[in-house]
Automatic annotation (TrEMBL):
The keyword Amino-acid biosynthesis does not apply. Keywords: Kinase, Nucleotide-binding, Transferase. The keyword Kinase applies. It comes from Cucumis sativus (Cucumber). Its EC number is 2.7.4.3. GO terms for molecular function: AMP kinase activity; ATP binding. Belongs to the adenylate kinase family. This is adenylate kinase. It holds the Pfam family ADK. Monomer. It catalyses: AMP + ATP = 2 ADP. One of its GO terms (cellular component) is mitochondrion.
Length: 294
């Protein structure tokens, strides 16, 4: 159960998902045309979509975005908030991995991109996202927490043209901890559970504890079935972090100027960070309090 705050809305417009993928369809149709510049493309899409876009009602579910470096824990905290607030958690990283494991038309193209630590193109991301949004619409879902999107200014501008984002949470963690977290990630090949075998214990120059993150170990039935993601090598992780730094600053500035960016430095692992994140969001997890008191 959650106590909502000024960041939270109430109910999402029922046709948001249709608006999103209709807007994308326009973008895709024009992206291969002979428009002279990105500015022309954007202005054409905005003018075409605005006439058919209904005003967004005040009564709707939250529409949040989670930003942060690869491996920072966006999925962990976004999924917890998704359960707490009763809105879908839509992670572009999961969409990419699902496509990779399928025999879909994008699988081979994505495999090459991911193995090199490069960013997936806007066109592919919108293909995957529009498919996911159509599924959400069919289920009658409303509101969302987007995880890993937008990653570029172009994506942010397109999203801005479709709907109003209430809040953008930017999770931050020092790079040495990020690298260790990424290299320690493991997945159960049977159930798909995500775990981390690394214990991060960073001390200051005087040897005092500065950052501690306990490992997230699997249950006994998963311990022998752990596998490493193919893209979790040191070279690939460092390249992903480098690319993210180059592209993230403009996106952060985009939302900072609009007064929607909440920067949150992770103080440690889930036991330390989750209560503080809830406090920063002015939310309350009654189930967490009850289990902590038990």
């Amino acid at each position: 159960m959650a106590v909502l705050n000024r960041f939270a809305g109430a109910r999402a417009p029922a046709n948001f998902y249709s608006s999103m993928f209709n807007y994308y369809a326009l973008w895709k149709a024009f992206s291969s045309s002979s428009l002279s510049s990105e500015v022309d493309l954007k202005s054409t899409l905005l003018s075409r979509s605005s006439s058919s876009r209904p005003d967004l009602p005040m009564d709707r579910n939250v529409q949040w975005v989670f930003l942060g470096c690869p491996g920072v824990g966006k999925g962990t905290y976004a999924s917890r908030l998704s359960s707490l607030l009763g809105v879908p958690h839509i992670a572009t990283g999961d969409l990419v991995r699902e496509e990779l494991s399928s025999s879909g038309p994008l699988a081979s193209q994505l495999a090459e991109i991911v193995s090199q630590g490069k960013l997936v193109s806007d066109e592919i991301i919108f293909d995957l996202l529009s498919k996911r949004l159509r599924a959400s619409e069919a289920k009658g879902e409303s509101g969302f927490i987007l995880d890993g999107f937008p990653r570029t200014i172009r994506q942010a501008e397109i999203l801005e043209g479709v709907t109003d984002i209430d809040l953008v949470v930017n999770l931050k963690l020092r790079e040495e901890a990020l690298l260790a977290k990424c290299l320690g990630r493991r997945i159960c090949s049977e159930c798909g559970g995500n775990y981390n075998i690394t214990c991060i214990d960073i001390k200051d120059k005087e040897g005092r504890p500065e950052l501690y993150m306990a490992p997230l170990l699997p249950p006994p039935n998963c311990a022998s079935k752990l596998i490493t993601r193919s893209d979790d090598t040191e070279a690939v992780v460092k390249e992903r972090l480098r690319i993210y730094k180059e592209t993230s600053q403009p996106v952060e500035d985009f939302y900072r100027k609009r007064g929607k960016l909440l920067e949150f430095d992770l103080p440690g692992g889930i036991p330390e960070s989750w209560p503080k994140l809830l406090q920063a969001l002015n939310l309350e997890d009654l189930n967490h309090k009850q289990s902590a008191a038990a």
